[in-house]
## 1
Amino acid sequence: MQALLLAFLLLLFGFARLVETKETREKCDYNNEQSVASCLQPMLDYANRLQEDTGMQFPLHGGSIFNKLCEIYHQFQECVEEVECSSISIEAVAASYGYICGPGMPLFERHAACFAQVERDTSYMSCKEAATKAMTDAQKKYKNAFGDPYLKAMCSAMDGYLRCSHPTITNTCGNEAWGLVSTVTRDSLRVTMPNCDMGNALF
């Protein structure tokens, strides 16, 4: 599935302290967020291991890889089910994986083989490499300063990636597949970077 999810997940805790939640419930305190972080660690570990094994920061997840991610996501849900406060970490993970590991799973499975094919396309690889470089440069430049300049740089990198990869994904897998990419991207950005407008890049 759409590549940006792993990047979102790995940067989740940097974004968490910047994003204002619209939930009416009381925000989680430090101890509760630490419990959530512990529940999230297996997913972060798997994402990191995937990047190390493939050397890719922006994989269009193949079927077996994504099935494993969804399995870990459901374990995360069970782990945090007793958390009653409002956690930006829980919201961000749900926004990134709730749809494609739930009602959108049949649609993803229908296009999984094609997404894997796109992953090997030279045009897509160029898009991925350019976006990876832009994100890496932003991380080096701003280090742990997750302020507006950093978020704008990350938003710009993702915008460039989407605009670049759109033709390849659409031409190879069709409009329905791109619609899936758009849905998941919008859901994830709504929580992780609400001020990042990807409207033009997603249509």
Note: Residues 154 and 171 are 26 Å apart (CA to CA).
## 2
Amino acid sequence: MAHFIACKKTTDDVHVARLYFREIYCLHGLPMSIVSNWDRHFVGHVWRSLWRLANTKLDFGSSYHPQTDGQTELVNRTLGDMLRVAIDGNLKSWDQRLYQVEFSYNRSWKRSTGFSSFTVIYGYNPRAPIDLVLLIGRKIHDKVEDLITTFQNIHEEARRNLKRPQANTNSIQTRRHDLWSSILETLFGVF
């Protein structure tokens, strides 16, 4: 399961550790091992001391052992592709779309397992926001109906953005864009 957490470049090691415990630990508990890159946050004294106390093994990827870092690189590339589709040029909104991209990523089928991350962890794929459309016409609270309308508007805007011709893209970028468009369509029922 992947988790995408927005933070600033100036975030210090203690804040990274707090983010980990607030966003990851509460969902999954303490890991047996963590594979990470050589970013200063993950090689610093605070991070190493914390995981030594938790009896968690830290593995660092290197150019000589790409298998330790290959999955992370693939997820990062996929995250970038999905965010580009989700924000459509509005670079300041990436952090506001991150939760949607995380949900879509974890709900999408993975070639390596043949299942989505949600299915592997929980045994099923959770309903997507598009499932809320089925509630229209029923007697529901006004604020809930506003939320549903907001989701519909976001999906409608994303659909329009995806249908616009992409200028100056090569065939690989176009194929990735088409792939993520179809995944988002499958997950959210729009586009």
Note: The radius of gyration is 19 Å.
